[in-house]
Amino acid sequence: MDLQIEYFNDGTAFHEIDPLSINPENLIDFSIYEKQSCGTQGFRFRCLLVDSHSIPRQRLMELLRFWKKVYIHKKQLKIYNEYLNNNLAYFLKHDEIDIVKKTETLIDLSTDVVKECFKTNFSITKDFKKSIDNVQRLLAQAIEFISDINSLNGIADLIGHDYETHLHSIKVGWLMATFINANRELFGVQRGPELKGLLLQAAVAGFLHDIGKIKIPQNILGKKGKLDNLEYIIIQCHTAYSASILFDTGLSKFSMQAILYHHENEDGSGYPSGLGCEQIPLIAKVCHIVDVFDALTSKRHYKESKTPFEALKIMIGENPYLDTLKKFEQEAVENKKTPLTAIVRDDYDIKLRRLREKEIIEEEAKKRVEVRMKLRDKGMSHCFNKELLKRFIHTINQSESFELSGVL
Ligand SMILES: [Fe+2]
C-alpha cells in the first residue's frame, strides 16, 4: 500500500495504537506514525517506522517502550487488526500492558469474530466453518488469559452494561473458562494439553451458545416490552436452533452439550428436553449458571441490571411460589396456540367477537407473563446445581472486583 512519510490531517485519518502491542519477534507490515500539533493546520503525522526489518530487534524493543502514543493510517487498520489477532497471546501476556487495555482489545477482537459467526450465511458451509475457525483461533491465543482468575478484574468492569447478544456470549465463554480452570478437578483434568483443550471447548461453547437466536424473528428478539406466551415459546427454540446450526461444524460433543442444554433446570422444568439433574451434562449446568448470572447483571430495555450480589441472591434463593411458577410455565407451553385460535374467517359480527376474544386472551397472556417474571425473581435455586452454584460464587469472589461477602 502506498503511504506517505508525512501527513497534515485533523486526526480523523489516523488511529491510535499501543506501541506495546507490537511484537518485536514478529515483523510488521504497516507504518507507525507520531502525532504533532500543527496550529491551524491540525496535526502533522510523521512516519516513525515503515519497515521493522530494518531495525535491530533490541533497538525496536527500546523504541516501543519509549514511544507513549503512536498511530497508524486508517487505510492499514485491517492489516493492524490481523497482526493483533496473530499476536494476541503476546499482547495478553505482556506484563507492561494493563488489564483494562488487554480486556478492551480482547473484547473488540472477540466481538468481530462472534459477529462474523452470527451473520454468516449458514447455507454456505465453507464460509461458516471459516468463521468458527476464527473463533477457535482467537480463543486458542486468549485461553490462558481468560481462564486466569486475575482476568476477572477485567470482566468485572463489563458487568451491568446493556445486554447485547455478542458481548453476553463473550462474557459467558470467558466466565466458563475461568470457572472450569478454577474447578478443574470436577472435570477430572489437572493440567497440560488436556486442560487447555477442555477450557477451549468450554469457551467456544460460551461464545456460540446463543447463535440459534439468529433464527428467531427480530420483532420477537428485540421486542420492547414483555413477551407473550407464544413469543416465549418461540424464544425457547433457540437452543435447538443453535445445535442444528453448529451440528456439522466439527465442534466437540462437550461444546454441543453446553449449547443444547444450557436452559435445562435442575428440577426438570427447563428446556428444550426437560432433563432432570442426573441427565443434564456438567458443562451445560456450568453454562446455565454463567448465562443467568450475566443476563441478570445486564441492563435490558424492560429492566435495570442487578448487582452481582443481588443476582446471586436470586439464584441461590428458594422460590416461595414455586408451584405457581411451575403452573405458569406449564400454561405457557399449553397456550402456545393461543393466537392461532383467534384466526378469523367468519362473518363480520363473529369476526369482531373473535378479535375481542383474541385481545382478551393476549391481555391475559401478557399479565401471566408479567407475574411469571416477577415470581421468577423471588428465587431460582430450583434451576441450578447447588454445589456448582456455590463453587461459582467462591470462584468469582476471589476477585476483589466483585463484592459478594454475605451472599452465602
Ligand atoms: Fe440461551
From TrEMBL:
| HD-GYP domain residues | 143-347
Q: Which domain of life is it from?
A: Bacteria
Which Pfam families does the UniProt record give? HD_5
Q: Does the keyword Iron apply?
A: no
Q: Its Gene Ontology molecular function terms?
A: hydrolase activity
Query: Keyword Hydrolase, does the record have it?
Result: yes
Sorted UniProt keywords: Hydrolase
- Protein name, UniProt field: Putative metal-dependent phosphohydrolase
